[in-house]
Amino acid sequence: MDRRSFLKGASVGAAAACVSTVAEARPNLEPAPEALGMLYDSTLCIGCKACVAACKEANNMDPVISGDDLQYDSAKDLSGDTLNVIKIYKDGTAEVKDHEENGFAFEKRSCMHCVDPGCVSVCPVTAMRRDPLTGIVTHHTDACIGCRTCMGGCPYNVPQFEYDEAFGRIHKCQMCNQAGLERISKGGMTACAEVCPTGATLFGPRTMLLEEAKRRTNLKGGDTYHYPRGDISKPESFHEKDLDANYVNHVWGETEAGGTNVLHISGVSFDKLGMPPLGDRSYASQSETLQHTIYKGMALPAVALAGLTYFVKRNKDKDGEE
Amino acid sequence: MSKAQPLGGTIFTPFFMAMMVLFAISVYFLGVRFTEGMGAVANINGGYPWGIWVVYDVVIGTALACGGYALAITIYLFNKGQYHPLMRAALLASLLGYALGGIGAFIDMGRYWQFYNLLLPWHMNFNAVMLEVGLCVATYILVLVIEFAPAFLERIGATGLLKALNKVLFLFIALGILLPTMHQSSLGSFLVAMGYKVAPLWQTVYFQPVLALLTALCMGFSIVIFEASMSKVAFKLDDETHLLSKLGKIIVGILSVYLVIRFAEILMHGKFGYIFAGDKNSLLFIMETVLFIIPIVILSSQEKRNNPKVLIWAAVSMLFAGSLYRFNAFLLTYDPGPGYSYFPSVSEIMVTVGIVAFEIMAYIVLVKTLPVLHKPKHA
Ligand code: SF4
Ligand code: SF4
Ligand code: SF4
Q: For residues A286 and A19, which has the higher predicted lDDT (pLDDT)?
C-alpha cells in the first residue's frame, strides 16, 4: 500500500470535516408578525363535539361512524377523513371534571400550527407552507408526492394520509383558510371556534390569546371570570363562570418545540392529555442546522468531489487496468 | 490476471423458478396496492407512516447495496488495485440493490404520479433531508448504470464506445464515492426530525449522520465478502479469501470507531441507564450491540479471518447488526405516542420478499450472460 496516497485521501476527509464546523446553528423560528391561532381551554370544553361536526361541514368531509353509534360522527382519532377530534382522559371512577385522580378531562386534537413547523421543514417539495404573515400552516395537494415524511416530522401526528384510496391525499387542519374556503382571509374565524358554545375553542391573534391564557392560568379555584366566545379580538358574547378547579400553571404552546399558534390550557397535566414530551428547541431547527452544517451552501460536496476526482484519476491512471 | 467472463449455463434452475413464484405473489399484492390504496396491503397508519417498505427496502436495502461504494473507496481512494476482480460483481449488486430501493420508494410513495415535483426547482425544499436523499439516490442509480456499463459494452463488443467511456469513467467513479457518502449519512439524519418518537438510545442530534455512514460502509464491505463467498460456492469459482480477509481487517477499524462514538454519545448524554432498563428497548440494544461486537472479535484474529467459513459468519453478523440498528431506530423502538402500533402484514412482507427475489433473479441472469465474475482458469 502507498502510504502517501492514504494520507492524502485521509486529508481530504479531514478538510471536509473542518469546513463543516464553521456553519452556525439555526435558532427556532419566531412567531409570524401577525400570527393567528386558537386557545383551547380544556376546563371549558363540555365534550359536545359541535366543533367536530362544524369542521367536517366546513371542510366538506364525511362523518366517520364507529360501532352502533349511527347518529353522531364518532371518529376516534385524526385520519384522512377527520381534521379535528375531541378526546377524553379518564381516571378511576371518572367522577370529577378536570381532576387527575378519579376524574376526567377533554382534549382537542387538531393541527397546532407550530411556530417552527416540523411538517414544513421536512417536506421535500414544499407542499406544507407556513404563511409568512399569519403563520397558518397549509397543505398543497398539487405539490405533494405522498412520501409521508411530514407525518413522522410532526410532533403531534397531525398530517394524515388517505390509506384507503388508490389516489390518496394528505389531510390536516389548515385553520379553515385553504384555497376555496379562506374563512380567515375573508375576515371570518375558524368553524370550530365559531360554533363552540362555551368559548373553549377561541380564535384570534396569538399575542392576545397568550395574554388571555396567562390571565386564566393565574386564577384560583373559586374566582369568577368572564369568558369570551368566538374571536377574542371581537367577541360576540361573554359568559361568567366560577372556577371549580385550578388550572395547571402552564400554557401549552408558549414554548414547546418553538411554540405553537394554537395554545392549550387545562386542569390536568398535559402528559395525561396525550401531549408529547417536547423541549424548547424545535426539531426543525435541529435538523436544518445539521443538514446545513454538512452541506453549507453545497460548497462542501463540491470541494469533496474535486478532491475525489483527483485521487480517482491519479490512482486509476497508475493502475493502468481497465 | 484472469478476465471477467459470462458464466453461461441454464438460467431456469429450480431455485430460479422458486424466486419467480415469490415475485409473482408480490406482483399480485402490488396490483391491490395500486387499485385499492396502501392500507389494503400494508399496516402503516397515522402514527407509523413508514413501514418495512421504507425501512427495509430503502433504508436497509441501500445500505446492503454499499458494496460498490466500499470497494470504490478501497481501490480508487486508497489505491489498492488488487481488489479490481471483485469490483464488477459488487457494482452489479449495488446497482440492483439501489434500483430496487428506488422501486420500493416509488411503491411506497403515496402520490407517485407527482414524483417529478422532486425535480422541479420551484418545488424543492433544500432544508428537507428527503429532497437530498431522493435526488442523491436517483443520481447514484444513474452513476451505477454508467459504472457497470463496461460489462455490457464488452459483451456486445462495442470497443469504440468502451474506450470513450473509459476516458471519462473516473468522473463517475468519483461521483460514485461522493453520492453514497451524502445520502447514506442523510438516511441517518432523517431520525433527527422525528424527535422524541425515536427512542433515546437511538436518538442523537449531531452523530446521526456519522453513525449511519460508518455502519453503511461496514455493511458494504461485509456484503462484498458475503457475495463473493456465496458466488464461489454457487458458481464454483476460485477462492478469493486472501482478498476478502483483508476487507475484514478494514471492518474492524471502522466498526471500532463506530462503537466508540456510539457509546461515547450514550455516556455523554447520561443515557447509560436505558441499556439496562430490562425493557424491550434495552433488549434490542443489547442484541444489536452483540451483533456488532461478533465481527470485531472474529475479524481481529488473523487466523479466524483467513478461515473462509468463519469469515462469512463475521460478515453475516455485521449485516444483521447494521440492519437491526436501522430497524430498531426507525421501527422497533419508534414510538409516536399512545394509540398507535405497527407490525407488517403478510401481504406487506410478501411485497418486500418479491422485490428481493427479483433482485436475486436479475443478479443470476446478469452474471450468467455478462462478464461480471472471474471464472477459474482451469475451467
Ligand atoms: S402540528 Fe404538525 S402539522 Fe400542524 S403545523 Fe405543527 S408540525 Fe405541522
Ligand atoms: S407527504 Fe406530501 S406534504 Fe407530506 S412531506 Fe411528503 S410531499 Fe410533503
Ligand atoms: S380550524 Fe377549521 S379545519 Fe381546523 S379544526 Fe377548526 S374547523 Fe377544523
A: A286
Q: Which of A170, A172, A173 to mutate to test the pocket of ligand 2 (most atoms within 8 A of CB)?
A: A170
Which residue, by CA, sits nearest to atom 5 of ligand 3? A84
H and E: helices and strands count for chain B: 14, 2
Write down the pLDDT at residue A222: 84
The alpha carbon of A56 is separated from its chain's Cα centroid by a whole number of angstroms, namely 20
Whether residues A277 and B196 touch (CB distance < 8 A) is answered with yes
Q: Is the CB of A97 under 6 A from ligand 1?
A: no
A145 contact B CB<8A: yes
Q: Is A136 in the pocket of ligand 1 (CB under 6 A)?
A: no
Under the banding of pLDDT at 50, 70 and 90, the label for residue B236 is confident
Contact: B197, A284; criterion CB under 8 Å: no
Beta strands A85-90 and A201-205, pairing class: unpaired
**pLDDT band per the 50, 70, 90 thresholds, residue B205:** confident
Per-residue pLDDT for A4 more than 60? no
Collapsing DSSP to helix, strand or coil, A85 comes out as: strand
Predicted TM-score (pTM) of this structure = 0.92
Q: Write the DSSP string, A23-54.
A: SPPPPPPPPPTT-EEEEEETTT-----HHHHH
Work out the average pLDDT over A26-54.
Answer: 95
More confident residue, A141 or A7: A141
* Long-range contact set of residues A242-250: C-beta below 8 Å, sequence gap at least 24: A243/A43, A243/A219, A244/A97, A244/A98, A245/A43, A245/A96, A245/A97, A245/A98, A245/A99, A245/A221, A246/A219, A246/A220, A246/A221, A247/A43, A247/A216, A247/A217, A247/A219, A248/A217, A249/A217, A249/A218, A250/A217
Mutating to test ligand 1, I would choose from A108, A126, A129, A154 the residue with most ligand atoms within 8 A of its C-beta, which is A154
Inform me whether the pLDDT recorded for A67 exceeds 70: no
Task: State residue B26's pLDDT score.
Answer: 97
Closest alpha carbon within chain A to B129: A122
* Nearest-CB residue to A157 (from B44, B46, B79): B46
Q: Smallest Cα–Cα separation from B60: which of B223, B239, B207?
A: B223
A155 touching B (Cβ < 8 Å): yes
Q: Whose CA is nearest to atom 2 of ligand 2?
A: A144
Q: Which residues in chain B have their CB less than 8 angstroms from residue A77's CB?
A: 46, 339
Residue to mutate among B36, B175, B192, with most A CBs inside 10 A, is B192
pLDDT mean over A189-202:
96
Domains assigned to chain A: 3-27+298-321 (no CATH), 36-280 (3.30.70.20)
A173 within ligand 1 shell (Cβ under 6 A): no
Above 0.90 for ipTM, yes or no?
yes
> Is the CB–ligand 1 distance for residue A118 below 6 Å?
yes
Which B-chain residues 125-184 have CB contacts (< 8 A) with chain A?
A: 125, 127-132, 134, 150, 166, 169-171, 173-175, 177-178, 181-182
The Cα A314–Cα B315 span in angstroms is 31
Question: Which residues, in sequence order, are CB contacts of B257 under 8 Å at separation 6+?
Answer: B214
A2 inside 8 A of chain B by CB? yes
B186 to chain A: closest CA residue: A291
Task: Give the containing element (helix H, strand E) for A160.
Answer: strand A160-161
Average pLDDT of the residues of chain B: 93
pLDDT band at residue B2 under the 50/70/90 scheme: low
Residue-wise pLDDT for B13-50, tens only, equals 999 999 999 999 999 999 999 999 999 999 999 999 99
